Every structure is written in structure tokens, then in C-alpha cells.
Amino acid sequence: MLNNLVNKAIKKAPLSRSEIDFLISCPIDELCKAALKIKENFFGNKIEFCSIINAKSGLCPEDCKFCAQSAHYKTNIKEYPFIDIKGIEQQAKKLKSNGVKRLSIVISGKSPTKSDLLKIESSLKIIEKSGLIGDASVGILNKDDLLRLKKASLNGFHRNLEVSEGFFRNICTTHKYKEDIETVKTAMQLGFYVCSGGIFGVGEGWKDRIELALTLKKLKVHSIPLNFLTPIKGTPLENMPILKEEEALRIIAVYRFLLADKQIRVCGGRNTVFSPKTKRRVLLCGASGLMVGNYLTTKGFDITSDLKDLKELNMQLLQ
């Protein structure tokens, strides 16, 4: 049956609920090998590196239960306004030299201020000058602001849905799920490369995970970042258990079956769930991209170790 589902996924045919349930219960080694076949059909042996810059940190009015940057919680993170543009230029050059293709400006807050927008525009021009593709994860934007950033060379727009609509109220109460959906739809309509995914290990079940995947499929987004919870002291989810490696791998593999031709990136929490010795496993279960370097408020794996993994697995960077 697994081979039949691989063929269906390659043809981008929808899977039934019973077929999805089969994948959820399938032995993990077999599932990962099958998901890798689907990934290789669409991406060959290529893996894309992307990275982020936390350009404005903390004091966010949103109450996302997993986030260290929320002003609702005391997490003792570094809080700062928009960083100096020179710092962005230095990071961009370093990341470019390590094979990173896309670099995203990230700021805290529901939406950027007018001052933030000016600095985002300047940052995007620097990223483009550095030879990287400029992306942004800057909250909920309207059509006019998106068009403004598009003129400033913004290529990719990122807005996570985080979880399923039914589970969303357990994670965030300061804005509506439909606001995220509408932002993603607007970005798609304007021709952006749209990146939207979620976070796992926040108390959701498989029903929620599948619902999120099917929502992203319906929205036809180009890239799906998969994040795994890093429990942060001071947040409501500080005592949540860390996902087991097998569970994280199963999520990646099932998402490959459901979103066969999409760029599936393993992002935040990769170094929480996986160790330096086991992290290469995500590359063997359907992932086609990695977020490398540091995350918003936590450290990531050293990029050179990710490059070493690619070399030893006979994989190449997507340039």
C-alpha cells in the first residue's frame, strides 16, 4: 500500500482519511524512505538553505503561548528596537558565503509601524545587494503595505498559521485565525513566494496537524516551514514535553505525502528535538529545506555541520 501512496503523492492526487491514517501508523523507517522518494521526484538530491535575522525583538502585544517575545510573559530575552542596518549587511554576507539562498527579516509585533516599514525596505535592498533573496516575516500586512515592500524587492512573504483553526484559540487569543488566512491569500494574489507553516508539540493532535496541512494545500503556498516547540521558561508552554524524534520525523514525512511538490523546510526547534548526531535524519524523511543559523531567541546548529551532513549524504545545495 505504501508504494501506491507514493505514486499517488507524486501524481499530486488527494489521499483519503484512511490512507492518511495508514501513514500515521506506518513503521517510521518505511515511512521515511517512502517520503524521501517523493521528495527526490520533485527536488532530486537538492536541499535549500534559508536563514533569518531577528531585526526587532520582544515587547510583542500578541499572546502566542509558545513565544518568548510576547509582552504578556516574563522570559528575560533581549529586547531591542530595529537593529542597525550595517548589522544586517554583515550577517547577509556571512550567510551568503555559507550557501544560504534566502534571508528573511523578522520583527516582533502584530504589524510593522511606518518607521519599521522604512527600515524593512532598506534591509531588503541590502539583502538583494548581497546576492540573497529577500524575504520578510513582519506580521499581518494589508495589500498596500505588501505592494510597497514588493517594490523594495521583497520576494518571499512569510506568515505562519501555526496550528489548525480549531486549535488556534488554545495558542493565541489576540487576533483571529482568519486574519492570518487573509494575509496569506493577499500575498498569494500579489504574486509573492509565500511561506506558511506551523509549530508542533504545542498540545495539538494528529487531527490538527492534518487539518493544517490540508489548509496549506488549499491555499497553495509555495513553502511550508515545520517548527518544533522549544519550551521557553516564562511562557504558558514552558512545561510541555519535547517531541520525540520519531514523532517529528513522522510529521515531516506525512507532510511530504500531503504537500508533495512543496518546499518543506525544517526550521525552529530542530536542535531541540534532534542532536548533532541525529539531525541529518530530517534530510532522509522528505525535507527539502533547512533553516540554518540561529533562530529568533535561541541558538541553532552551526552551519558548517549542516554542510557536512549534505556532503556525507551526497546531497547538494539548491542555488
Question: How would you characterize the overall build of this protein?
Answer:
- With 319 residues, this protein is of the alpha/beta class.
- The protein has a single domain, classed as Alpha-Beta Barrel (TIM Barrel).
- The chain has helices at residues 2-10, 17-25, 28-43, 85-97, 114-129, 143-151, 177-189, 206-219, 245-258, 270-273, 303-312, and strands at 46-56, 102-107, 133-137, 156-158, 193-195, 198-200, 223-228, 263-266, 289-291, 316-317.
- α6 (143-151) links the parallel β3 (133-137) and β4.
- The protein is globular, with a radius of gyration of 19 Å.
- The mean pLDDT is 94.
Cα separation of the termini: 35 Å
- How do the helices and strands follow one another from N- to C-terminus? HHHEHEHEHEHEEHEHEHEHE
The 3D shape can be described as globular
Mean pLDDT: 94
Largest sheet: 10 strands, parallel
The CATH architecture category equals: Alpha-Beta Barrel
Give the strand content: 5-15%
Instruction: Return the CATH topology.
Output: TIM Barrel
The level 1 CATH classification is Alpha Beta
**Which homologous superfamily in CATH is the superfamily?**
Aldolase class I
How many structural domains are formed by the residues?
1
| pLDDT < 50 stretches | none
Determine the structural class based on helices, strands and strand pairing: alpha/beta
Q: Number of DSSP helices?
A: 11
The count of DSSP E runs of length 2 or more, i.e. the number of strands, is 10
| CA-based gyration radius | 19 Å
The helix content is 25-40%
